[in-house]
Amino acid sequence: MNEAQQARLAMRRGEWTGPTVYKIPGYVQCNLVVLPKADAYEFLLYCQRNPRPCPLIDVTDPGDPTPRLAAPDADLRTDLPRYAVYRHGVRCDDVTDIKALWREDSVGFLIGSSLTFDDALERAGVPKSQEVWVLNTTLPTTPAGKFQGPMVVTMRWMTPAQAVIAGQLTGRFPYNHGAPIHLGDPHAIGADLDHPIYGEPVKTIPNGVMPVFWACGVTPQRVALTTKPELMITHAPGHAFITDLRADQVCIP
Amino acid sequence: MNEAQQARLAMRRGEWTGPTVYKIPGYVQCNLVVLPKADAYEFLLYCQRNPRPCPLIDVTDPGDPTPRLAAPDADLRTDLPRYAVYRHGVRCDDVTDIKALWREDSVGFLIGSSLTFDDALERAGVPKSQEVWVLNTTLPTTPAGKFQGPMVVTMRWMTPAQAVIAGQLTGRFPYNHGAPIHLGDPHAIGADLDHPIYGEPVKTIPNGVMPVFWACGVTPQRVALTTKPELMITHAPGHAFITDLRADQVCIP
Known about the structure:
2 copies of one chain form a homodimer.
Chain A: H1 3-12, E1 27-36, H2 37-49, E2 56-59, E3 83-87, E4 90-95, E5 106-112, H3 118-123, E6 133-140, E7 150-158, H4 160-170, E8 182-183, E9 210-215, H5 219-227, E10 231-235, E11 241-246
Antiparallel strand pairs in A: 1-5, 1-10, 1-11, 2-5, 3-4, 3-10, 6-7, 7-9, 8-9
Protein backbone atom coordinates (compact mmCIF):
# COMPACT_ATOMS: atom_id res chain seq x y z
CA MET A 1 0.00 0.00 0.00
CA ASN A 2 1.51 3.36 -1.00
CA GLU A 3 1.57 6.41 1.26
CA ALA A 4 -1.38 7.99 -0.56
CA GLN A 5 -3.48 4.87 -0.06
CA GLN A 6 -2.55 4.81 3.63
CA ALA A 7 -3.50 8.47 4.00
CA ARG A 8 -6.86 7.95 2.27
CA LEU A 9 -7.60 4.95 4.49
CA ALA A 10 -6.95 7.06 7.59
CA MET A 11 -9.36 9.68 6.23
CA ARG A 12 -11.93 7.00 5.41
CA ARG A 13 -11.76 5.75 9.00
CA GLY A 14 -12.15 9.30 10.34
CA GLU A 15 -8.67 9.26 11.86
CA TRP A 16 -7.40 12.10 9.65
CA THR A 17 -9.68 15.15 9.54
CA GLY A 18 -7.04 17.91 9.36
CA PRO A 19 -5.33 19.74 6.47
CA THR A 20 -3.22 18.04 3.78
CA VAL A 21 -0.94 21.05 3.29
CA TYR A 22 2.69 19.78 3.12
CA LYS A 23 1.52 16.18 3.76
CA ILE A 24 2.44 13.06 1.72
CA PRO A 25 5.00 14.86 -0.46
CA GLY A 26 5.45 13.69 -4.05
CA TYR A 27 1.80 12.76 -4.68
CA VAL A 28 -0.58 14.88 -6.73
CA GLN A 29 -3.17 16.57 -4.49
CA CYS A 30 -6.53 17.61 -5.89
CA ASN A 31 -9.38 19.96 -5.16
CA LEU A 32 -12.79 18.30 -5.33
CA VAL A 33 -16.07 19.50 -6.82
CA VAL A 34 -19.17 17.28 -6.85
CA LEU A 35 -22.18 18.37 -8.91
CA PRO A 36 -25.32 16.70 -10.25
CA LYS A 37 -25.03 15.46 -13.87
CA ALA A 38 -27.40 18.24 -14.96
CA ASP A 39 -24.72 20.82 -14.07
CA ALA A 40 -21.74 18.73 -15.22
CA TYR A 41 -21.48 19.87 -18.85
CA GLU A 42 -21.38 23.57 -18.05
CA PHE A 43 -18.90 23.00 -15.23
CA LEU A 44 -16.67 20.81 -17.44
CA LEU A 45 -16.74 23.60 -20.01
CA TYR A 46 -15.94 26.15 -17.28
CA CYS A 47 -12.85 24.12 -16.37
CA GLN A 48 -11.83 23.83 -20.03
CA ARG A 49 -12.07 27.61 -20.41
CA ASN A 50 -10.16 28.27 -17.18
CA PRO A 51 -7.26 25.80 -17.13
CA ARG A 52 -5.15 27.96 -14.79
CA PRO A 53 -7.54 27.80 -11.78
CA CYS A 54 -9.29 24.56 -12.88
CA PRO A 55 -6.87 22.06 -14.51
CA LEU A 56 -8.81 18.79 -14.59
CA ILE A 57 -7.01 15.65 -13.43
CA ASP A 58 -9.99 13.26 -13.46
CA VAL A 59 -13.78 13.34 -13.87
CA THR A 60 -15.90 10.42 -12.66
CA ASP A 61 -18.79 8.78 -14.49
CA PRO A 62 -22.22 9.73 -13.06
CA GLY A 63 -22.89 7.92 -9.78
CA ASP A 64 -19.42 6.34 -9.68
CA PRO A 65 -17.49 7.56 -6.61
CA THR A 66 -14.16 6.14 -7.88
CA PRO A 67 -11.69 8.35 -9.76
CA ARG A 68 -10.46 5.57 -12.05
CA LEU A 69 -7.52 7.43 -13.56
CA ALA A 70 -6.23 9.19 -10.45
CA ALA A 71 -6.81 6.63 -7.66
CA PRO A 72 -8.59 3.45 -8.81
CA ASP A 73 -9.22 2.11 -5.27
CA ALA A 74 -10.41 5.37 -3.74
CA ASP A 75 -13.90 6.49 -2.78
CA LEU A 76 -14.58 10.21 -3.15
CA ARG A 77 -17.40 9.96 -0.58
CA THR A 78 -15.07 9.10 2.31
CA ASP A 79 -11.44 9.61 1.31
CA LEU A 80 -11.03 13.32 1.95
CA PRO A 81 -10.42 14.69 5.43
CA ARG A 82 -13.13 17.34 5.26
CA TYR A 83 -15.84 18.48 2.85
CA ALA A 84 -17.76 21.73 2.42
CA VAL A 85 -21.43 21.46 1.44
CA TYR A 86 -22.90 24.33 -0.58
CA ARG A 87 -26.68 24.62 -1.07
CA HIS A 88 -27.83 27.38 -3.43
CA GLY A 89 -24.42 28.99 -3.04
CA VAL A 90 -24.36 28.98 0.75
CA ARG A 91 -21.72 26.95 2.60
CA CYS A 92 -24.12 25.38 5.05
CA ASP A 93 -22.17 22.46 6.44
CA ASP A 94 -18.70 20.97 6.87
CA VAL A 95 -18.62 17.17 7.10
CA THR A 96 -16.02 14.39 7.12
CA ASP A 97 -17.88 12.10 4.72
CA ILE A 98 -20.55 12.62 2.05
CA LYS A 99 -22.09 9.14 1.85
CA ALA A 100 -25.54 10.47 2.70
CA LEU A 101 -25.26 13.26 0.11
CA TRP A 102 -23.92 11.21 -2.83
CA ARG A 103 -26.55 10.59 -5.52
CA GLU A 104 -26.96 8.36 -8.55
CA ASP A 105 -26.28 11.37 -10.77
CA SER A 106 -23.32 12.79 -8.82
CA VAL A 107 -20.23 13.61 -10.89
CA GLY A 108 -16.88 14.18 -9.16
CA PHE A 109 -14.33 16.61 -10.61
CA LEU A 110 -10.72 16.44 -9.42
CA ILE A 111 -8.80 19.65 -10.05
CA GLY A 112 -5.01 19.79 -9.63
CA SER A 113 -3.73 21.63 -6.56
CA SER A 114 -0.67 23.79 -6.05
CA LEU A 115 -0.07 21.79 -2.86
CA THR A 116 1.38 19.26 -5.35
CA PHE A 117 4.45 21.28 -6.22
CA ASP A 118 5.56 22.44 -2.75
CA ASP A 119 7.76 19.36 -2.45
CA ALA A 120 9.29 19.92 -5.91
CA LEU A 121 9.97 23.56 -4.94
CA GLU A 122 11.81 22.40 -1.84
CA ARG A 123 13.94 19.99 -3.88
CA ALA A 124 14.74 22.90 -6.22
CA GLY A 125 16.03 24.99 -3.30
CA VAL A 126 12.88 26.92 -2.33
CA PRO A 127 12.11 26.04 1.29
CA LYS A 128 8.47 25.73 2.28
CA SER A 129 7.05 29.09 3.26
CA GLN A 130 5.74 29.21 6.77
CA GLU A 131 2.18 29.36 5.54
CA VAL A 132 0.16 29.04 2.32
CA TRP A 133 -2.78 31.41 2.05
CA VAL A 134 -5.94 30.99 -0.04
CA LEU A 135 -7.33 34.41 -1.02
CA ASN A 136 -10.16 35.99 -2.98
CA THR A 137 -9.19 38.35 -5.81
CA THR A 138 -10.96 40.53 -8.36
CA LEU A 139 -9.39 38.71 -11.37
CA PRO A 140 -12.21 37.59 -13.68
CA THR A 141 -12.56 34.04 -15.03
CA THR A 142 -14.10 33.09 -18.40
CA PRO A 143 -17.80 32.21 -17.94
CA ALA A 144 -19.40 28.99 -19.18
CA GLY A 145 -23.18 28.93 -18.94
CA LYS A 146 -24.13 29.90 -15.41
CA PHE A 147 -20.63 29.32 -14.00
CA GLN A 148 -18.75 32.58 -13.53
CA GLY A 149 -17.03 34.66 -10.92
CA PRO A 150 -13.66 35.96 -9.78
CA MET A 151 -10.55 33.82 -9.31
CA VAL A 152 -9.23 32.49 -6.02
CA VAL A 153 -5.45 32.31 -5.61
CA THR A 154 -2.87 30.78 -3.30
CA MET A 155 -0.16 33.05 -1.95
CA ARG A 156 3.36 32.14 -0.84
CA TRP A 157 6.11 34.50 0.36
CA MET A 158 9.46 34.16 -1.36
CA THR A 159 12.66 36.10 -1.90
CA PRO A 160 12.98 37.46 -5.47
CA ALA A 161 15.56 34.73 -6.23
CA GLN A 162 13.17 32.04 -4.99
CA ALA A 163 10.32 33.58 -7.01
CA VAL A 164 12.40 33.24 -10.18
CA ILE A 165 13.08 29.55 -9.48
CA ALA A 166 9.42 29.01 -8.62
CA GLY A 167 8.34 30.59 -11.92
CA GLN A 168 10.57 28.26 -13.91
CA LEU A 169 9.69 25.15 -11.95
CA THR A 170 5.93 25.49 -11.61
CA GLY A 171 5.60 26.20 -15.34
CA ARG A 172 6.35 22.48 -15.70
CA PHE A 173 3.19 21.64 -13.73
CA PRO A 174 0.38 22.85 -16.01
CA TYR A 175 -2.00 20.31 -14.44
CA ASN A 176 -1.35 21.85 -11.03
CA HIS A 177 -1.97 25.51 -11.98
CA GLY A 178 1.35 26.04 -13.81
CA ALA A 179 3.39 29.22 -13.49
CA PRO A 180 2.42 32.05 -11.08
CA ILE A 181 -0.59 34.16 -12.10
CA HIS A 182 0.94 37.23 -10.44
CA LEU A 183 3.83 38.40 -8.28
CA GLY A 184 4.29 41.43 -6.09
CA ASP A 185 1.61 43.97 -5.18
CA PRO A 186 -1.46 42.09 -3.87
CA HIS A 187 -3.68 45.09 -4.65
CA ALA A 188 -3.00 44.76 -8.39
CA ILE A 189 -5.20 41.64 -8.43
CA GLY A 190 -7.50 42.69 -5.61
CA ALA A 191 -6.18 40.00 -3.28
CA ASP A 192 -8.11 40.19 -0.02
CA LEU A 193 -5.43 39.84 2.67
CA ASP A 194 -7.83 40.86 5.46
CA HIS A 195 -10.22 37.96 4.95
CA PRO A 196 -8.29 34.87 3.77
CA ILE A 197 -10.33 31.80 2.80
CA TYR A 198 -7.55 29.75 4.38
CA GLY A 199 -4.83 31.07 6.67
CA GLU A 200 -4.60 33.93 9.15
CA PRO A 201 -5.35 37.57 8.16
CA VAL A 202 -2.20 39.21 6.79
CA LYS A 203 -1.33 42.50 8.46
CA THR A 204 2.11 43.16 6.94
CA ILE A 205 4.43 41.43 4.51
CA PRO A 206 7.87 40.87 6.07
CA ASN A 207 10.94 42.62 4.62
CA GLY A 208 12.93 40.84 1.95
CA VAL A 209 10.12 38.68 0.58
CA MET A 210 7.47 39.22 -2.07
CA PRO A 211 4.07 37.55 -2.38
CA VAL A 212 3.83 35.04 -5.26
CA PHE A 213 0.34 34.03 -6.42
CA TRP A 214 -0.96 30.94 -8.21
CA ALA A 215 -4.44 30.34 -9.60
CA CYS A 216 -6.26 28.09 -7.13
CA GLY A 217 -8.69 25.20 -7.43
CA VAL A 218 -10.80 26.71 -4.66
CA THR A 219 -12.08 29.08 -7.40
CA PRO A 220 -15.19 26.88 -7.98
CA GLN A 221 -16.19 27.47 -4.34
CA ARG A 222 -16.11 31.22 -4.96
CA VAL A 223 -18.00 30.64 -8.20
CA ALA A 224 -20.67 28.74 -6.28
CA LEU A 225 -21.48 31.93 -4.36
CA THR A 226 -22.40 33.56 -7.69
CA THR A 227 -23.83 30.56 -9.54
CA LYS A 228 -25.81 29.13 -6.61
CA PRO A 229 -26.16 25.52 -7.85
CA GLU A 230 -28.78 23.55 -5.92
CA LEU A 231 -26.12 21.26 -4.42
CA MET A 232 -22.35 21.46 -4.74
CA ILE A 233 -19.94 19.56 -2.54
CA THR A 234 -16.25 20.46 -2.40
CA HIS A 235 -13.20 19.69 -0.31
CA ALA A 236 -12.73 22.11 2.58
CA PRO A 237 -9.91 24.52 1.60
CA GLY A 238 -6.52 23.07 2.60
CA HIS A 239 -8.07 19.59 2.97
CA ALA A 240 -7.36 18.07 -0.45
CA PHE A 241 -7.78 14.66 -2.07
CA ILE A 242 -4.48 12.77 -2.33
CA THR A 243 -4.22 10.76 -5.58
CA ASP A 244 -1.95 7.83 -6.49
CA LEU A 245 -0.36 9.98 -9.22
CA ARG A 246 3.25 10.99 -8.66
CA ALA A 247 3.80 14.72 -9.08
CA ASP A 248 7.01 14.22 -11.06
CA GLN A 249 5.30 11.86 -13.50
CA VAL A 250 2.49 14.19 -14.44
CA CYS A 251 4.36 17.47 -14.48
CA ILE A 252 4.13 17.39 -18.29
CA PRO A 253 1.39 14.86 -19.02
CA MET B 1 -5.64 42.28 -40.16
CA ASN B 2 -3.19 39.60 -39.00
CA GLU B 3 -1.96 36.76 -41.23
CA ALA B 4 -4.34 34.27 -39.62
CA GLN B 5 -7.32 36.54 -40.32
CA GLN B 6 -6.20 36.94 -43.93
CA ALA B 7 -5.84 33.18 -44.33
CA ARG B 8 -9.29 32.54 -42.86
CA LEU B 9 -10.83 35.14 -45.15
CA ALA B 10 -9.28 33.41 -48.19
CA MET B 11 -10.80 30.14 -46.96
CA ARG B 12 -14.18 31.82 -46.35
CA ARG B 13 -14.14 33.08 -49.95
CA GLY B 14 -13.25 29.62 -51.27
CA GLU B 15 -9.87 30.83 -52.53
CA TRP B 16 -7.90 28.54 -50.19
CA THR B 17 -9.03 24.91 -50.21
CA GLY B 18 -5.65 23.17 -49.81
CA PRO B 19 -3.65 21.97 -46.78
CA THR B 20 -2.43 24.24 -43.97
CA VAL B 21 0.68 22.16 -43.27
CA TYR B 22 3.66 24.54 -42.84
CA LYS B 23 1.42 27.56 -43.63
CA ILE B 24 1.09 30.79 -41.55
CA PRO B 25 3.94 29.88 -39.18
CA GLY B 26 3.71 31.09 -35.59
CA TYR B 27 -0.08 30.77 -35.23
CA VAL B 28 -1.77 27.95 -33.33
CA GLN B 29 -3.48 25.54 -35.74
CA CYS B 30 -6.40 23.44 -34.58
CA ASN B 31 -8.24 20.28 -35.48
CA LEU B 32 -12.03 20.73 -35.58
CA VAL B 33 -14.82 18.48 -34.32
CA VAL B 34 -18.48 19.55 -34.54
CA LEU B 35 -21.10 17.50 -32.71
CA PRO B 36 -24.71 18.02 -31.62
CA LYS B 37 -25.12 19.22 -28.03
CA ALA B 38 -26.48 15.78 -27.08
CA ASP B 39 -23.05 14.25 -27.73
CA ALA B 40 -21.03 17.20 -26.40
CA TYR B 41 -20.70 16.16 -22.75
CA GLU B 42 -19.29 12.72 -23.51
CA PHE B 43 -16.95 14.12 -26.13
CA LEU B 44 -15.76 16.89 -23.79
CA LEU B 45 -15.09 14.19 -21.19
CA TYR B 46 -13.28 12.10 -23.83
CA CYS B 47 -10.98 15.05 -24.53
CA GLN B 48 -10.39 15.62 -20.80
CA ARG B 49 -9.38 11.97 -20.39
CA ASN B 50 -7.12 12.02 -23.45
CA PRO B 51 -5.19 15.31 -23.32
CA ARG B 52 -2.34 14.02 -25.47
CA PRO B 53 -4.41 13.42 -28.64
CA CYS B 54 -7.22 15.87 -27.72
CA PRO B 55 -5.89 19.00 -25.95
CA LEU B 56 -8.80 21.46 -26.04
CA ILE B 57 -8.07 25.03 -27.10
CA ASP B 58 -11.65 26.28 -27.34
CA VAL B 59 -15.24 24.96 -27.19
CA THR B 60 -18.10 27.02 -28.59
CA ASP B 61 -21.50 27.58 -27.03
CA PRO B 62 -24.32 25.56 -28.67
CA GLY B 63 -25.30 27.08 -32.02
CA ASP B 64 -22.56 29.72 -31.89
CA PRO B 65 -20.07 29.27 -34.79
CA THR B 66 -17.53 31.69 -33.29
CA PRO B 67 -14.60 30.42 -31.20
CA ARG B 68 -14.55 33.41 -28.86
CA LEU B 69 -11.28 32.61 -27.12
CA ALA B 70 -9.23 31.41 -30.11
CA ALA B 71 -10.43 33.69 -32.95
CA PRO B 72 -13.24 36.08 -31.99
CA ASP B 73 -14.01 37.18 -35.58
CA ALA B 74 -13.94 33.72 -37.15
CA ASP B 75 -16.80 31.53 -38.36
CA LEU B 76 -16.22 27.78 -37.99
CA ARG B 77 -18.77 27.13 -40.76
CA THR B 78 -16.65 28.73 -43.47
CA ASP B 79 -13.15 29.46 -42.21
CA LEU B 80 -11.47 26.09 -42.77
CA PRO B 81 -10.20 25.04 -46.20
CA ARG B 82 -11.89 21.65 -46.19
CA TYR B 83 -14.22 19.65 -43.95
CA ALA B 84 -14.99 15.92 -43.65
CA VAL B 85 -18.61 14.97 -42.92
CA TYR B 86 -19.19 11.73 -40.99
CA ARG B 87 -22.67 10.21 -40.76
CA HIS B 88 -23.02 7.18 -38.48
CA GLY B 89 -19.24 6.76 -38.59
CA VAL B 90 -18.92 6.88 -42.37
CA ARG B 91 -16.99 9.70 -44.03
CA CYS B 92 -19.56 10.40 -46.68
CA ASP B 93 -18.60 13.82 -47.95
CA ASP B 94 -15.79 16.38 -48.14
CA VAL B 95 -16.96 19.99 -48.40
CA THR B 96 -15.44 23.48 -48.28
CA ASP B 97 -18.12 25.00 -46.06
CA ILE B 98 -20.67 23.60 -43.59
CA LYS B 99 -23.27 26.37 -43.54
CA ALA B 100 -26.02 23.97 -44.63
CA LEU B 101 -25.02 21.40 -41.97
CA TRP B 102 -24.65 23.75 -38.99
CA ARG B 103 -27.53 23.41 -36.52
CA GLU B 104 -28.89 25.35 -33.56
CA ASP B 105 -27.41 22.70 -31.25
CA SER B 106 -24.01 22.38 -32.96
CA VAL B 107 -20.99 22.59 -30.66
CA GLY B 108 -17.52 23.20 -32.12
CA PHE B 109 -14.42 21.75 -30.45
CA LEU B 110 -10.99 23.11 -31.37
CA ILE B 111 -8.16 20.71 -30.55
CA GLY B 112 -4.52 21.80 -30.71
CA SER B 113 -2.48 20.54 -33.65
CA SER B 114 1.15 19.53 -33.91
CA LEU B 115 1.29 21.66 -37.06
CA THR B 116 1.62 24.46 -34.51
CA PHE B 117 5.14 23.56 -33.39
CA ASP B 118 6.82 22.90 -36.76
CA ASP B 119 7.87 26.53 -36.93
CA ALA B 120 9.23 26.46 -33.37
CA LEU B 121 11.15 23.29 -34.24
CA GLU B 122 12.76 25.03 -37.20
CA ARG B 123 13.79 27.98 -35.04
CA ALA B 124 15.35 25.46 -32.62
CA GLY B 125 17.46 23.96 -35.41
CA VAL B 126 15.22 21.12 -36.59
CA PRO B 127 14.47 21.72 -40.29
CA LYS B 128 11.00 20.81 -41.53
CA SER B 129 10.85 17.18 -42.56
CA GLN B 130 9.89 16.72 -46.18
CA GLU B 131 6.51 15.39 -45.20
CA VAL B 132 4.26 14.96 -42.14
CA TRP B 133 2.26 11.75 -42.07
CA VAL B 134 -1.00 11.07 -40.21
CA LEU B 135 -1.24 7.38 -39.29
CA ASN B 136 -3.52 4.93 -37.52
CA THR B 137 -2.03 2.98 -34.60
CA THR B 138 -3.17 0.31 -32.16
CA LEU B 139 -2.51 2.51 -29.08
CA PRO B 140 -5.71 2.60 -26.98
CA THR B 141 -7.31 5.80 -25.70
CA THR B 142 -9.33 6.15 -22.47
CA PRO B 143 -13.06 5.77 -23.22
CA ALA B 144 -15.73 8.25 -22.14
CA GLY B 145 -19.28 7.02 -22.65
CA LYS B 146 -19.58 5.86 -26.24
CA PHE B 147 -16.39 7.61 -27.39
CA GLN B 148 -13.51 5.16 -27.67
CA GLY B 149 -11.00 3.78 -30.14
CA PRO B 150 -7.30 3.71 -31.00
CA MET B 151 -5.07 6.76 -31.26
CA VAL B 152 -4.03 8.50 -34.47
CA VAL B 153 -0.50 9.92 -34.60
CA THR B 154 1.58 12.24 -36.73
CA MET B 155 5.00 11.02 -37.87
CA ARG B 156 8.09 13.07 -38.73
CA TRP B 157 11.52 11.76 -39.67
CA MET B 158 14.44 13.17 -37.70
CA THR B 159 18.04 12.40 -36.92
CA PRO B 160 18.54 11.19 -33.33
CA ALA B 161 20.02 14.59 -32.41
CA GLN B 162 16.96 16.35 -33.86
CA ALA B 163 14.65 13.93 -32.03
CA VAL B 164 16.27 14.89 -28.72
CA ILE B 165 15.73 18.61 -29.42
CA ALA B 166 12.17 17.92 -30.54
CA GLY B 167 11.44 16.03 -27.31
CA GLN B 168 12.63 18.92 -25.20
CA LEU B 169 10.92 21.59 -27.25
CA THR B 170 7.50 20.04 -27.86
CA GLY B 171 7.15 19.21 -24.16
CA ARG B 172 6.63 22.97 -23.80
CA PHE B 173 3.50 22.74 -26.01
CA PRO B 174 1.10 20.64 -23.91
CA TYR B 175 -1.86 22.26 -25.67
CA ASN B 176 -0.50 21.06 -29.02
CA HIS B 177 0.06 17.38 -28.06
CA GLY B 178 3.21 17.98 -26.01
CA ALA B 179 6.22 15.65 -26.13
CA PRO B 180 6.42 12.68 -28.56
CA ILE B 181 4.21 9.70 -27.73
CA HIS B 182 6.79 7.34 -29.26
CA LEU B 183 10.05 7.23 -31.18
CA GLY B 184 11.66 4.53 -33.31
CA ASP B 185 10.04 1.27 -34.39
CA PRO B 186 6.61 2.05 -35.93
CA HIS B 187 5.45 -1.54 -35.29
CA ALA B 188 5.72 -1.04 -31.51
CA ILE B 189 2.62 1.17 -31.67
CA GLY B 190 1.01 -0.57 -34.64
CA ALA B 191 1.53 2.46 -36.89
CA ASP B 192 0.01 1.68 -40.28
CA LEU B 193 2.61 2.92 -42.78
CA ASP B 194 0.89 1.21 -45.71
CA HIS B 195 -2.35 3.16 -45.40
CA PRO B 196 -1.64 6.68 -44.13
CA ILE B 197 -4.64 8.88 -43.35
CA TYR B 198 -2.59 11.78 -44.74
CA GLY B 199 0.58 11.46 -46.81
CA GLU B 200 1.92 8.88 -49.24
CA PRO B 201 2.34 5.19 -48.27
CA VAL B 202 5.74 4.66 -46.64
CA LYS B 203 7.79 1.86 -48.20
CA THR B 204 11.13 2.35 -46.44
CA ILE B 205 12.54 4.73 -43.86
CA PRO B 206 15.71 6.41 -45.14
CA ASN B 207 19.06 5.74 -43.46
CA GLY B 208 20.17 8.07 -40.69
CA VAL B 209 16.69 9.16 -39.55
CA MET B 210 14.20 7.74 -37.10
CA PRO B 211 10.43 8.16 -37.06
CA VAL B 212 9.15 10.41 -34.25
CA PHE B 213 5.45 10.21 -33.34
CA TRP B 214 3.09 12.67 -31.69
CA ALA B 215 -0.50 12.05 -30.57
CA CYS B 216 -2.78 13.61 -33.19
CA GLY B 217 -6.05 15.53 -33.10
CA VAL B 218 -7.32 13.43 -36.00
CA THR B 219 -7.96 10.75 -33.34
CA PRO B 220 -11.64 11.80 -33.01
CA GLN B 221 -12.12 10.94 -36.70
CA ARG B 222 -10.85 7.41 -36.06
CA VAL B 223 -13.04 7.31 -32.96
CA ALA B 224 -16.06 8.23 -35.10
CA LEU B 225 -15.61 4.98 -37.04
CA THR B 226 -16.19 3.08 -33.77
CA THR B 227 -18.66 5.42 -32.06
CA LYS B 228 -20.78 6.17 -35.13
CA PRO B 229 -22.39 9.43 -33.97
CA GLU B 230 -25.35 10.44 -36.11
CA LEU B 231 -23.51 13.51 -37.43
CA MET B 232 -19.92 14.58 -36.84
CA ILE B 233 -18.11 17.21 -38.89
CA THR B 234 -14.35 17.59 -38.72
CA HIS B 235 -11.57 19.33 -40.61
CA ALA B 236 -10.11 17.24 -43.44
CA PRO B 237 -6.73 15.89 -42.22
CA GLY B 238 -3.96 18.39 -42.99
CA HIS B 239 -6.55 21.17 -43.50
CA ALA B 240 -6.62 22.79 -40.07
CA PHE B 241 -8.26 25.86 -38.51
CA ILE B 242 -5.82 28.73 -38.02
CA THR B 243 -6.47 30.65 -34.79
CA ASP B 244 -5.38 34.15 -33.75
CA LEU B 245 -3.36 32.63 -30.89
CA ARG B 246 0.41 32.86 -31.16
CA ALA B 247 2.13 29.52 -30.69
CA ASP B 248 4.82 31.01 -28.47
CA GLN B 249 2.24 32.65 -26.19
CA VAL B 250 0.28 29.50 -25.44
CA CYS B 251 3.14 27.04 -25.22
CA ILE B 252 2.65 27.03 -21.44
CA PRO B 253 -0.86 28.41 -20.96
